[in-house]
Amino acid sequence: MAESVWGQIKQLTEEISSAKCENAEALEAFRIRFLGSKNILKPLFGEIKNVENSRKKEFGQEINALKALAEQKFKEQQSSIKKQDKASEKNTLDMSLPAGLYPQGSRHPVSIIMDRIIEIFEKIGFSVAEEREIEDDWFNFTAMNTPEDHPARDMQDTFYLKDSEKNLLRTHTSSVQSRVMMETKPPIRIIAPGRVYRNETISARSHCQFHQVEGLYVDKNVSFADMKQTLLYFAREMYGPDTKIRLRPSYFPFTEPSAEMDVYWGLKNETDYRITKGTGWLEILGCGMVDPKVLENCNIDPEEYTGFAFGMGIERQAMLKYNISDIRLLFENDVRFLKQFSSVI
Ligand code: DAH
């Protein structure tokens, strides 16, 4: 009897050592047989009383080793099945399935409008000039015929840099005019898109940062008629081929004569009345003939050259085009707002 128990241990040791579970079911069968609550090793522990005294210790060690072997084998088999599963998961990947939908970005409405304006002026030979946003007082004001104490400085509340009376955040893209004129000889034909800053209270209609596109054309014999035709072309490209414009006399320190350009928006509904203040006309930009003093400040001979310039706000045009009622939406970058422009090219 005792001999057959020793034989049984030997046989079970072999069985466990050579066991190979191919799948989760086989593994579970192994667990039940060797580690379950009614496992096959349990009765062996009861046999110890039948073993002769001198070999009781040895017998105890043998069945404990057998149990440990079963536990170790189970763990090994379990992890190899897990690996197998992972590998086969890879193999079942269907590469021909359509890719998942990634959220798509969209262009910012300000960029859309700005790029459109650039495109329109590039068609007629204007090139893009970009300059710094932190500007020297001289380029932003003085060169543009707005010396210190000039009342026109009050028109644009300025952010000066800390501890500096000289450096400021540019209040308009007109500063690019003086930069370019100081560096280049005419003919000059540029547009300057970019961000500008003014110390204004933030509200639905105004912000302390916004975007402008500046235009400058300096050459021999540039006339007011050239300016008018250029701006008419722009308005028709931007707002449709039948767009009407009008130029109203205005004042800017850097142009003489100066004007503001309106486009005819119409008075079809209540909103049109509101945004055009009941006139049907909408102001789009400021413009004029470059003041001879500005040319002189930038070392260009006003006897030889003349020029025209214009400057327009971008946010306002984006708000009109996309019916946006609050300028702050353009700076908050809330994806729920931006997402709406994903189909606009
Ligand atoms: N710089 C002016 C502003 O920010 C806009 C402007 C008006 C620009 C007339 C010009 C111009 O170049 O000729 O209000």
What does this structure look like?
With 345 residues, the protein is an alpha+beta fold. The chain folds into 2 domains: 84 residues; 233 residues, BirA Bifunctional Protein, domain 2 (2-Layer Sandwich), CATH 3.30.930.10. The chain contains 13 helices and 9 strands. The strands form 2 sheets. Strands 1-4-5-9-8-7-6 form a 7-stranded mixed β-sheet, sandwiched between helices. Strands 2-3 form a two-stranded antiparallel sheet. Helix 1 packs parallel to helix 4 and helix 2 runs antiparallel to helix 4. The site of 3,4-dihydroxyphenylalanine (DAH) has 11 residues, from strand 8 and strand 9.
Question: Which keywords apply here?
Answer:
345 residues; alpha+beta; two-stranded antiparallel sheet; 19% strand; binds 3,4-dihydroxyphenylalanine
Q: What is the helical fraction, as a range of percent?
A: 40-55%
What's the arrangement of strands in the largest beta sheet?
Answer: 1-4-5-9-8-7-6
Please provide the count of β strands: 9
> H/E order of the elements?
HHHHHEEHEHEEHEEHEHEHHH
Helices and strands in order:
Elements: H1 2-18, H2 24-34, H3 42-46, H4 56-91, H5 109-122, E1 127-128, E2 134-136, H6 137-142, E3 167-169, H7 174-183, E4 188-197, E5 209-219, H8 224-239, E6 245-252, E7 255-264, H9 270-275, E8 281-290, H10 292-297, E9 306-313, H11 315-322, H12 329-332, H13 335-338
Parallel strand pairs: 1-4
Antiparallel strand pairs: 2-3, 4-5, 5-9, 6-7, 7-8, 8-9
Helix pairs in contact: 1-4, 2-4, 5-11
Bound molecules: 3,4-dihydroxyphenylalanine.
The site of 3,4-dihydroxyphenylalanine has 11 residues, from strand 8 and strand 9.
